[in-house]
Write a structure and sequence with these properties.
heterodimer; A: 91 residues; alpha+beta; Ubiquitin-like (UB roll); five-stranded mixed beta sheet; two-stranded antiparallel ribbon; 2 helices; B: 286 residues; alpha/beta; Rossmann fold; eight-stranded mixed beta sheet; 11 helices; disordered C terminus
Chain lengths: 91, 286
């Protein structure tokens, strides 16, 4: 099982949970697995080029943009963090 | 640098810093001589500016174009109920000078644009980003990189916060290395639309103030190359590693952005302006 930490923006798809579990040998497979269980969860994360540029995904704290993107391999016990850009602060 | 540089009142005012081995009279002297620009006199800017003023940062700039609104008071501690309707930078300057009348506070009652950014940022040693929209965040990032000034970043959303420090120069990641592109217009609701826990900017802004003080005094390990993520609901704090992107359009090996740009067109959204309903991406129905 791979632990997936979700930002608030995506929690509406998983009954408000901050963390879910999924399976897959690569990040792409994990996202497919999550999408099967939680339809709509990964809609905004990918496009034809792969991961969208305003979405960052970290595997055990390392940015997947430098480890193979959606092909980044995953193993039992890995922690995946999904992080979209947020801008709030002033108003 | 010796304690003799301080007046008797200053020695008392800053006693807890002067006694602190890491800071001492020398570090306090650096704070007194330092200057910082706080962009946004709101949720994040409030604790940042108040702690920097209390710490004796000698010259503080406050930038905001907005006026105090009743809905601000749940979290923006720079402002009082009596300040509703006043320009935020005036209300904020009063609060800071009440806290510490020995410092200098400059009120910039304006929006930051590609036209005025260099002129406004230039006189400050470091910049703290407490804005609420992507166009200004990209503008502040680009301007601080081009002026070679440290940028203390913070951002909040509902119960979640982010903080980091972006240093100028190669090999050190900037905001664009982290987020090369802003989200599609309207895909991320603002605090005004999505709500925010009132204490959250207090936590994140206090972290930004801590980082600013560390940068000024040269102590500890600032959040350079690291992004702090916090979730007030689970009260989990995590850091992820940031990398310098050699292809970054601003700080990369072959920069393509070499002058300031206003991102309103690029983001399709003016600062603070809610997007038309139809443009909202469906995936963020939070």
């Amino acid at each position: 099982m791979i632990s997936v930490k979700l930002p608030t923006l995506l929690r509406a798809h998983v009954d408000g949970r901050s963390e879910v579990e999924g399976e897959g040998a690569s990040l792409g497979e994990l996202l497919d697995d999550l999408e099967r269980h939680f339809p709509g969860l990964t809609d905004g994360l990918r496009d034809d080029r792969g991961l969208r540029r305003h979405v960052n995904v970290y595997v055990n704290g390392e940015d997947v943009r430098y480890t193979g993107g959606l092909d980044t391999s995953l193993g039992e016990g890995d922690t995946v963090s999904i992080l979209p850009a947020v801008a709030g602060g002033s108003r | 640098m010796s304690e003799a540089r301080f007046t008797e009142d200053q020695v008392l005012r800053y006693a807890r810093h002067i006694f602190l081995p890491h800071i001492g009279a020398e570090g306090q002297g650096r704070l007194t001589e330092a200057s910082a620009l706080v962009i946004g006199a709101g949720g994040l800017g409030s604790p940042v500016a108040m702690y920097l003023a209390a710490a004796g940062v000698g010259r503080i700039g406050l930038l905001d174009f907005d006026s105090v609104d009743l809905t601000n008071l749940q979290r923006q501690l720079l402002h009082d109920t009596d300040d509703v309707g006043r320009p935020k930078v005036e209300s904020g300057r009063d609060r800071l000078l009440d806290l510490n009348p020995t410092i200098e506070v400059t009120a910039h009652d304006t929006s930051l644009t590609s036209e005025n950014a260099f002129e406004i940022l230039e006189p400050y040693d470091l910049v703290v980003d407490g804005t609420d929209n992507f166009p200004v965040r990209y503008l502040v990032n680009d301007a601080t990189q081009m002026l070679a000034k440290p940028l203390v970043y913070g951002s909040i959303y509902q119960f979640e916060g982010q903080a980091s420090v972006f240093m100028p120069g190669r090999e050190r990641p900037c905001y664009r290395c982290l987020f090369p592109e802003p989200p599609p217009p309207g895909s991320v609701p603002s605090c005004a639309e999505a709500g925010v826990l009132g204490v959250l900017p207090g936590i994140v802004g206090s972290i930004q103030a801590t980082e600013a003080i560390k940068l000024i005094t040269g102590i500890g390990e600032p959040l350079v190359g690291r992004l702090l993520l916090l979730d007030a609901l689970t009260m989990e704090f995590r850091t992820v590693n940031l990398r310098w992107d050699p292809a970054c359009p601003v700080c990369g090996e072959d920069p393509t952005v070499t002058e300031l740009i206003d991102y309103d067109a690029f983001c399709g959204l003016a600062p603070g302006q809610p997007p038309p309903e139809a443009e909202r991406a469906p995936e963020v129905a939070s």
